[in-house]
User: Fold this.
Amino acid sequence: MEKISDTKNSNTRLFTYIFILSVTATMFIYYLIKNYTISDYVLLIVFSALSVIAETFLILLPKAGAISVSFALTYSAILLTDPLTAAIITAVGVAFRCPYVDGRGRVHIFNTPIYKTIFNISQLIINSGMAGIVYVSLNKHIGIGFQFYNPIAGSAALIVDIFLNVFFMSELMSILLNEKFVYIWKSNFFSMMVNVVLVGLLGIILAFAYNSYGIGGILLFFIPLLLARYTFKLYIDMRKNYFDTMNVLVRAIEANDPYTSGHSQRVSAYSEAIAKQLGLPQGRIDTIKSAALLHDIGKIGIDKNILNKTGKLEKDEFETIKSHPEIGATIIADLSYLVNIADIIRHHHERDDGNGYPDGLNHDRIPLETSILTIADSFDAMTTNRPYRHSLSLDDALNEIKINAGTQFNPDIVDDSIIALRNTYYSLSE
Assistant:
C-alpha cells in the first residue's frame, strides 16, 4: 500500500507541476502577443520548419529527458527578431516534431504522451521568451557589438535560458526519479551549461548566415547542426555500450556464484546512494557505480567449489578467495575504457586499520571511492543469505558498520553511509 500511495503522490505532484507551468506559459505568451509584433514572417516560417526537423532528431537520454540542437534556431531568432517570434519557433518545433522510433522500437507521434508535449512547450515558451526579453532590453540600452549580435545582451540571454531550463528540468526529474531537487540541479547544471553554450555558438553562426545571405545562408549553415547532433548521438551510443558491456560481465560473475545473484547491482545502488549523500560530483559517482558493478569480477577465476562451500574454508581456500580483487583488477586493467576503476576493485577488501588485503593499505592511502565501495559491499553481504550463514537484520548490519568505524571502515563517511544505506535498503525492498 505504501508503494501505491507513493506512486499516487508522485503522479499528483507531476500533473500539478505541469498544470501550473502550462498556466504560467499561457499567461506569458498572452503578454508577449500584447507587447511584441512579429517582424519577419519568412524567418518565422523557415525557422519553425527547421525547428521541427531538429526536434525530430532529438537524442533521448538514458533516464529522462532529451537533447536537441533546435535551440540554435531559437537563439538565432532571439538575436534577429523578437521574443514572440522566438517563443513561437521553439513551441512549433516541439509540438509538430515528426514521428520517431525510440531505443525500444516504439513509434512516438507528436511527442506522446500529451503531458510531455504540454511540459515541453510550456517550459520552452518561458525559456525562450524570457531570454528574448533580456536580449531586447539589454541591447536597447547597451549598444555594442555587431548589427545582429550584442555579446553582453547575448550572454545574458544564454544565462537566463540555462537557468530556467535547468530549473524546470530539475524539478521534473526530481519528481520522475524521486531524487532531491538540489542533487539533480548540481549534477545537471554544468553539463546543461556546456550544451547550451555550444549550441548557442551555432546559433550565432546561423544568425550571421541569415543576416548576410538570407534563406540560402541559413540552409547551408543548418548542416553543422545536424552534424553536431550526429556526433553527440555517437557519444550517447558509446556510453550505452559501455554500461551494456558491464552488465554482461556482471551476469558472467553471477553465473559463477549463484548465491550472490543481484549482489553487484545492489552494491552499485548502495555505493551510488552513499556517494550522493556525500555530495560527490556526477563523474565520481559514475566511476564508483562502475567499480561496484564489477568489483567481484575476479571471482570468475575462483573454483566454484570454493565459492559455494557451505562449511568453513580451509586456510589455502581462503587465500584463494582473497586473490579475487587482484584477479579482477588485472582483468579490468586490460580494458582501456575501464582502467580507471582497476585500483578501486583491487582494494575493495582493504581495511581502514591496514589489516586488509591484498596490499594492507591504511586510512590515509585508501581512496574515498574504495572506502565507499567497501561499506556498500560489506552491508549487502551482511543483509543477504550466504551458504555459510543467515542474513542480519537492517539495524544489526548498520550497527556492525558503526562498531567497525575506524578499524574496517572509514570513520569519516560512516554516518552519511548509514543514512544512505537505510534509505536505499527500504527502496530496494519495495
Remarks:
- Strands lie at 59-60, 66-67, 100-101, 107-108.
- Residues 2-35 form the longest helix (34 residues).
